[in-house]
Design a protein that fits this description.
Elements lengths: L1 E3 L2 E4 L16 H13 L8 E7 L5 E8 L2 E8 L15 H15 L7 E5 L4 E5 L9 H6 L5 H18 L3 H6 L3 H19 L4 H13 L3 E3 L8 E4 L2 E4 L6 E3 L2 H17 L4 H17 L6 H21 L10 H15 L6 H13 L2
Parallel strand pairs: 2-3
Antiparallel strand pairs: 1-2, 3-4, 4-5, 5-7, 6-7, 8-11, 9-10
Length: about 350
């Protein structure tokens, strides 16, 4: 047990969603966590709590904190992300995340965790902790072969609902004018960095980057991925919205469907299930597109999807689950072939991807 002033930091505990081997936080982190909990009025003077470090991905620190009233989750945005490349982003993006949670909660509180407090000085906030037994990660389910098209359809339906509710709204555009952060977190590391490595497709990828940066269509979450979606009893629960920005909703659609294709390479034995999820998500999303012609949004998403396939191999944030060089080269070559084509929709991309997989 560690003690700081009047606070007792109890021993760490297990968490089924934990992916990091690190289970103890350092003295400095515990002091910062304690100060943040006090600032957010979640812990009183003389109180006690238990804290355990959870996996926060590359962009943040995350703790599960046990209070007498129950468990909560505390998150802190990092100024330098944990990747090999030098990738930095303003830590004030934590405010964009809580703002996105509040916006979505206004549509349906079941779609996001409840925000319990915010410490802007330390770029930290607290939110509801959702138990893994009732809210497993969608990524984990997919990895085990539980590829449920009906749940994928719910993801597409909810995502379209969020985009439709924000489309064409000047107030939302004003509140989420986070172009600088989005450039640092998404456009530069995923599109521009990848373009610099592939001269043959660089002009097209750079044009996509320019178009996304200029778009003012609807509210993007920016990190719609199976690792950021919980399978709750009432449908999907979305996490990690620090990249939220007003822009092109096709970005979110492409970012998510990208992972369903990549997982076909990770676990080829579940290929058909992943492709069924891809189609179900796409169909549900298309049926909810009300702000423009669905085929226009889909064509932009298909182009971005092709670029993201390449970016998750050669960008600043390659997927951690594809490690074999043969797998990386397959994704690279197939993505480059897709980028050489124009006018594709998402089903065209999926069919091309399936044919490439079958011919490996």
């Amino acid at each position: 047990m560690l003690e700081f002033g009047n606070f007792r930091i109890l021993p760490p505990f297990d968490d089924q969603r934990q992916m990091s081997a690190e289970t103890q936080t350092g003295d400095l982190e515990l002091r910062e966590l304690t100060d943040a909990l006090v600032a957010m009025k979640l812990v009183d003077e003389g109180g006690e709590f238990a804290a355990q470090r959870l996996s926060g991905g590359v962009s943040c620190d995350v703790w599960r904190v046990d209070l007498p009233s129950g468990s909560i989750c505390v998150k802190r945005a990092l100024p330098r992300l944990r990747v090999t490349a030098d990738w930095r982003a303003p830590p004030k993006r934590a405010e964009a995340e809580t703002d996105w949670f509040h916006f979505v909660a206004g549509l349906n509180p079941n779609w996001v965790p409840e925000v319990l407090g915010q410490d802007r000085k330390r770029h930290m906030f607290a939110m509801e902790y959702l138990e893994p037994s009732t809210h497993p990660l969608w990524k984990g389910e997919l990895a085990s072969g539980n590829a449920d098209p009906s749940f994928a359809a719910r993801v597409g339906d909810v995502l379209a609902h969020i985009h439709a509710a924000s489309a064409g709204r000047e107030d939302v555009a004003h509140d989420f004018a986070h172009g600088v952060e989005f450039l640092a977190l998404r456009i530069e590391p995923y599109l521009l960095y990848t373009a610099d490595k592939h001269a043959a497709v660089a002009p097209r990828i750079r044009q996509m980057a320019k178009d996304v940066a200029a778009a003012r269509i609807a509210l993007m979450q920016g990190d719609i991925s199976p690792k950021n979606i919980l399978h709750g009893p009432d449908g999907p629960v979305f996490l990690d919205a620090e990249t939220a920005c007003y822009g092109d909703p096709a970005f979110d659609l492409a970012f998510c469907t990208n992972h369903l294709l990549l997982k076909c390479v990770w676990h080829p034995e579940f290929r058909d299930g992943y492709l069924a999820c891809f189609e179900a998500l796409r169909d549900a999303y298309a049926s909810g597109v009300t702000w423009e012609e669905p085929e226009d949004a889909e064509e932009r998403a298909a182009a971005l999807l092709s670029a993201f396939l390449l970016a998750r191999i050669d960008g600043k944030s390659p997927v951690e689950y594809l490690t074999a060089e043969t797998d990386k080269q397959f994704v690279r070559e197939t993505a480059l072939a897709l980028l050489a084509k124009r006018g594709l929709d998402l089903l065209d991309v999926a069919e091309f991807w399936k044919d490439a997989l079958l011919s490996r």
